[in-house]
Write a structure and sequence with these properties.
Four Helix Bundle (Hemerythrin (Met), subunit A); 7 helices
Length: 246
């Protein structure tokens, strides 16, 4: 009887002890790890390794993102784009100035042919030409800024492509080198695609003035020649003798 009581008491003590270990609140994470090692150590080790691999992969992705972002958003790249905009502005302004000089000469000659130099028409036409020139300056700036915006847009697209490559497991160093190469390529393409000239369309209305002036001058010359020719017709000679008393 006493032996049975001792065995029963020992059994109850073991059950209570095991219950404490199985209770997460009592045992905590350490006890769960011990139990995991007792009942499934291989699976727990594989899970830990998978978690570590994912941590390393995520750290590499974050590092790749930061490196690529740093290249495309660097002060050096921003300065390159600003220099590109300035270059575009200078080329456009040079083309506009060349067209303006051409228009100045055309207007001067057309006014002279029409005998309007120095008058109110001269002043009005030159005022209109100056206003168009100012409009051309604003257009030059707009085109230059648009070229810079297009270059930035191309950079953003290339940056997203490279980040997608890193996310898929691409090498960080390769991605960084590709970023530099792509930026250079974007700048070269932007220079090639830039549209210069076409400022002659800005002064198209003045082309009609020049055309009308030339046509009027031609008509006056033709009329003068025709009138001069009538002096040598028989009727003109007879009239001349009568009028001149010769």
């Amino acid at each position: 009887m006493e032996l049975a009581k001792l065995i029963l008491a020992g059994y109850e003590a073991n059950i209570m002890s095991l219950g404490k270990w199985l209770n997460p609140i009592y045992a905590g994470k350490k006890s769960l790890k011990i139990l995991g090692g007792l009942f499934g150590g291989g699976k727990n080790k594989a899970l830990d390794q998978a978690e570590e691999n994912e941590r390393i992969r995520q750290a590499e992705i974050d590092a790749g993102y930061k490196k690529i972002e740093g290249i495309f958003s660097s002060p050096e790249r921003n300065q390159q784009i600003e220099d590109f905009i300035g270059s575009q502005r200078g080329l456009l302004q040079s083309d506009l100035n060349r067209e303006k000089g051409k228009q100045d000469r055309e207007l001067k000659f057309s006014l002279a042919r029409s005998g309007l130099s120095g008058g109110s028409t001269d002043i009005d036409q030159n005022r209109q030409l100056s206003e168009l020139y100012l409009r051309g300056i604003a257009e030059s700036e707009r085109r230059a800024q648009n070229s810079g915006a297009e270059l930035r847009s191309q950079d953003q697209q290339q940056k997203q492509n490279l980040m997608s490559s890193v996310l898929a497991g691409g090498d960080i160093t390769t991605g960084a080198n590709n970023a530099i190469a792509m930026m250079r390529n974007n700048t070269a393409l932007a220079r090639t695609d830039s549209t210069f000239g076409n400022f002659d369309s800005l002064f198209r209305d003045f082309g009609n003035i020049y055309k009308n002036s030339r046509e009027s001058a031609g008509e006056r010359k033709a009329n003068k020649n025709m009138n001069f020719g009538t002096l040598f017709t028989p009727s003109a000679q007879q009239g001349g003798q009568v009028a001149g008393g010769i």
